[in-house]
Design goal:
Largest sheet: 9 strands, mixed
Order of helices and strands: HEEEEEEEEEEEEEHEEEE
Strand order of the largest sheet: 9-15-12-11-10-17-16-13-14
Structural class: mainly beta
Strand content: over 45%
CATH superfamily of the largest domain: Jelly Rolls
Radius of gyration: 21 Å
CATH architecture of the largest domain: Sandwich
Number of helices: 2
Shape: elongated
Number of domains: 2
Length: 265
């Protein structure tokens, strides 16, 4: 029952900002625990980010530091040998079975809502792996790629995001890296806080409507990492700078363009 309660809270968070929906004030599961979170003016669509990877062939434990601003955290496990894998968390979890796990070979996950330092212990015999992640809605602040800071890197084009069907702002730069790969850098990027968004490379000069975005030749190259903050995208090797003239952020489930940026060379 405790686990179900934790999942209901998360469901409310995501449902308020579903793809294609309006921006809304969101419920805050940590308001009573961490009042500082209410000082965050803008929130990104919830995303999972890695905390640790545990692997081995016998029991192991590790201290995990979960952000106070995390919505929840999880351990995704899989095992290929042995009879069974089980996990335990200290302090005692409020939102999941005390010893989640299952038969081997197999895979599953367990989720918890408490933040701060957690002691995660994995009990198993045989080869296993556990990926520990936390779900956050804070801005993503990726630094520029090291290759972008190289003297041999070249900025080929720049642009600014503007609204299409939803709000959008921020800057984008197209880089040629020393390896000859192309990469995009979004800075101070922001769009409506929804999920299921993708990055398109478009041959349109700067689509201003969904119809223009769909009609222009385009190539979907990545899932949008975050609806808020700075982020990097290394483009496929097959892409050349002449293949696109703008960047479009696209919502696939309802098929609308959120925001777009034309590139000035």
């Amino acid at each position: 029952m405790r686990r179900a309660t934790g999942m209901v809270v998360t469901g409310l968070l995501v449902a308020s900002t579903g793809c294609g929906g309006k921006d809304e004030e969101r419920a805050d599961p940590f308001a009573k625990v961490d009042p500082q979170i209410t000082k965050v003016k803008d929130r990104a669509a919830p995303r999972w980010e890695p905390l640790a990877i545990m692997r081995g062939t016998r029991a192991e434990q590790r201290t995990i530091e979960v952000s106070k601003r995390a919505i929840q955290w999880r351990a995704r496990w899989r095992c290929t040998k042995g009879k069974r894998l089980s996990m335990s968390v200290a302090p005692k979890p409020r939102s999941a079975p005390e010893r989640p796990g299952g038969r081997c070979p197999g895979k599953d996950e367990a989720e918890w809502i408490q933040s701060g330092k957690q002691r995660l212990k994995v009990n198993a015999v045989g080869r296993w792996r556990v990926d520990v992640e936390q779900q956050v809605d804070t801005p993503l602040n990726e630094p520029p790629l090291r290759a972008m800071r190289s003297e041999r890197a070249e900025v080929l084009a720049r642009g600014s995001f503007g609204p299409v069907e939803r709000r959008g702002k921020g800057r984008v730069a197209l880089y040629r890296l020393p390896s000859e790969r192309l990469a995009l850098r979004f800075e101070d990027f922001s769009t409506s806080s929804n999920t299921d968004l993708f990055v398109w490379l478009s041959q349109g000069a700067r689509p201003k409507t969904t119809k223009q975005a769909v009609k222009a030749p385009h190539n979907q190259i990545a899932v949008l990492k975050s609806t808020l903050g700075s982020q990097n995208y290394v483009l496929p090797r097959s892409v050349t700078e002449d293949d696109f003239r703008s960047i479009v952020i696209w919502c696939e489930p309802v098929r609308i363009a959120y925001t777009a940026a034309g590139l000035r060379r």
